[in-house]
Amino acid sequence: MKKFKRIPQHIGIIPDGNRRWAQNKGLEKQDGYRFGIDPGLELYDTCIELGIKEMTFYGFTVDNTKRPPEQIKAFQKACVDAVECLAKRDADLLVVGNTQSSLFPKELLPYTKRTRFGKGLIKINFLVNYGWNWDLNYSVKDRDFNSNDDLVKRIASSEISRLDLIIRWGGRRRLSGFLPIQSIYADFYVINEMWPDFNKEQIYQAFAWYQDQDITLGG
Amino acid sequence: MKKFKRIPQHIGIIPDGNRRWAQNKGLEKQDGYRFGIDPGLELYDTCIELGIKEMTFYGFTVDNTKRPPEQIKAFQKACVDAVECLAKRDADLLVVGNTQSSLFPKELLPYTKRTRFGKGLIKINFLVNYGWNWDLNYSVKDRDFNSNDDLVKRIASSEISRLDLIIRWGGRRRLSGFLPIQSIYADFYVINEMWPDFNKEQIYQAFAWYQDQDITLGG
Fold it and tell me: How far apart are CA B72 and CA A204, in angstroms?
């Protein structure tokens, strides 16, 4: 078992590159998403082994729903399948996203309140039909909100804690709207391989890098 | 003169590593900041040469003011000097930060409304005593704000446009509260050298990388 001097409490996962992976294999773009389920479960096992307390998966965003319908269907299904697989393991699950839109998969409505499955062991948040703009504006849509409140405490994703480390697959070095508040002081690690080519060595390398970072939070 | 297929419209600059640079030279930590002025002016020249339309410098943040007083004094002075130097060139200058705190340098108050110096040529934003939390909450402190408004359009930094590319010196791979809204889709490029060791080859390398990025904005 791998040991690190210091591990992140909460990691964010941006599982990018499914479409590019599919094209490289001669498949249709939308066929990539279903190859993203097993990597997620392997990552789950790795995080349990390492003692991670919380992880957040970037499922799909409101911006992603500008894509062609066959792709939308495929990533919606992949999110439903992933959440249902995790619900058969040990996890405190929470799905966060705009449920008031028809693009939110109805099958995931029961998961929008945090629920313990099995022995819990790890908090897992799954962003589904998530929008950074929706997340921030949610606070002020609340009738009880008043201008003296800290809006940061009232955002839609307020149950999700500050991120220590964000890992993005697929080589792109950008956050693409991933939890802007929780990402403020997160360290950002990019893996060039596509998400369906996940292997746990990638996580070990990310953690090996992370353990040597000097965390100051601006001080 | 360098040519690129595509250049960013708006770049963000996180000039980190002044303290580590000073320590490596056997100086006191706070002595690093004054070596950060000339790099800024050289970067200004490079951006004018390349045709960049807008740039935003991360001066200092509310979180940075937790540091020892001699450091606070040093980075305040460096910001004042930098803005006053830029005001002698061609630039549309704007300083954004919490002016209601005593930590905001009074010398910079005249710059908190965008002002053209010389022929303009480039928009330059300078964040001084900036806080991400202050920036976001600013919107709802406005008496005219109502819950149907998009708070993102009413933040304190709303005059600063979306960032295309953020370049951070000093090796750290994190945003540290830098304009969370404008950073949403920005590409993030990290230079391992410390900011006082700036040279324009670093910018050319960042731009060479940037020109090959596929910009999708989530679509």
Answer: 38
CB-hemisphere CA count at 13 Å for A151?
Answer: 27
List chain A residues with CB under 8 Å of B188: 173-175, 188
Indicate the angle between helix axes A37-50 and A200-210, nearest 10 degrees. 50
Give the Å distances, CA to CA, from B122 to B45, B54, B94: 11, 6, 11
The list of chain A residues with pLDDT below 50 reads none
Query: B200-210 and B37-50 are packed helices; what angle lies between their axes, rounded to 10 degrees?
Result: 50
Asked if A174 lies within 8 A of B181 by C-beta distance, the reply is: no
pLDDT digits 0-9 by tens, B151-197: 999 999 999 999 999 999 999 999 999 999 999 999 999 999 999 99
Determine, for residues B184 and A180 on separate chains, whether the beta-carbon distance falls below 8 Å.
yes
Residue B99 identity (one-letter amino acid): T
Tokens 């990552």 belong to which residue? A43
Q: How far apart are CA A163 and CA A137, in angstroms?
A: 20
3-state class (DSSP) for residue A10 = strand
Cα of B81 to nearest chain A Cα, Å: 22
pLDDT number for residue A146: 82
Q: Per CB distance under 8 Å, which residues of B are interface residues toward A?
A: 61, 63-64, 66-67, 132-133, 136-137, 139-143, 145, 147, 149-152, 172-177, 180-181, 183-189, 213-214, 217-219
- Name chain A contacts of B180, Cβ cutoff 8 Å: 180-181, 183-184
**ipTM of the prediction greater than 0.85, yes or no:** yes
